[in-house]
Amino acid sequence: MSARPKVGLFVTCLVDLVRPQVGFAAVKLLEQAGCDVAVPEAQTCCGQPAWNAGADRDAKDIARAVIAAFEGFDYVVAPSGSCAGMIKRHYPEVFENDAEWLPRARALAQKTHELVSFLVDVRKVSTVPAKFAHKVCYHDSCSSLREMGVKAQPRALLGSVEGLALEELTDTQVCCGFGGLFSVKYPEISERMADDKIADACGTGADTLLAGDLGCLLHLAGRLKRESKTMAVRHVAEVLADMGGEKALGET
């Protein structure tokens, strides 16, 4: 590999369609970490909704397109533990009985990382030149925590942000209720879980809720708005990249 590794940024559907500035923040952080970053135009969804819904043929078609678009990079990085987890943990399952594509899926899986864990664990970033004078709490998404092993890494970098004070949630390992299709199939349960997570966040005294997965953030931001509760919601990459001055999720 070159001294400046070539990183393919997997932007994710939600970032592309709802919160593009998370993608710009990811590029900034990766470039600060000494990487050459490209965003393949051919990339699409990671295929997780199809895979979770049992649409295996569609999941395979999507996964093939992702593999073809990204296998030429030294690393694949996503600002989402959910999408990174799909590629890293589930692509080998998607092609379990496919002798042609399984090796390619495994090769891509081995070099796929969630953004903040890549910065800390691979690029050995320990500080960021960012300022954010707010009290924040951090939500660990299920996929980041359980599939990608992301917990200490965002906290380590947030600790270097000037002016930031981190207050921990009481139930850090409890789901927010989004869960992709779960929130569609079981809206009442999902709503209650979101309310419990929001109550936990508000109880910290923080004015800003951070996380590394936009699905969770949109879910919680929507519930906060419906309940008329004033707490800013941001992707952690925005704060680490010193882009916290932009409007938070849900702000108009």
Notable traits:
2 domains; alpha/beta; four-stranded parallel sheet; 8 strands; 252 residues; globular; Rossmann fold
What value does the average pLDDT take?
94
Structural class: alpha/beta
Number of helices: 13
Percent range for β-strand residues: 5-15%
One letter per element, helices H and strands E, the order comes to: EHHEHHEHHEHEHHEHHEHEH
Helicity level, as a percent range?
40-55%
Task: Kindly summarize this structure in a few lines.
The chain has 252 residues and is an alpha/beta fold. 48% of the residues lie in helices and 12% in strands.
Write the layout of secondary structure elements.
Elements: E1 6-9, H1 13-17, H2 20-32, E2 36-38, H3 48-52, H4 56-70, E3 75-78, H5 81-94, H6 102-110, E4 112-114, H7 115-122, E5 135-139, H8 142-147, H9 152-158, E6 165-166, H10 181-185, H11 187-203, E7 208-211, H12 214-226, E8 232-235, H13 236-240
Parallel strand pairs: 1-2, 1-3, 3-4, 5-6, 5-7, 7-8
What this model shows, in words?
This protein has 252 residues and is an alpha/beta fold. The chain has two domains: 6-122, no CATH class; 135-240, Rossmann fold (3-Layer(aba) Sandwich), CATH 3.40.50. The protein has 13 helices and eight strands. It has a four-stranded parallel β-sheet, with helices on both faces. The chain has a four-stranded parallel β-sheet with strand order 6-5-7-8. α12 (214-226) links the parallel β7 and β8 (232-235). α5 runs antiparallel to α6, α7 packs across α9 (152-158) and α11 (187-203) crosses α12 (214-226). It is globular, with a radius of gyration of 18 Å. The model has no long low-confidence stretch (mean pLDDT 94).
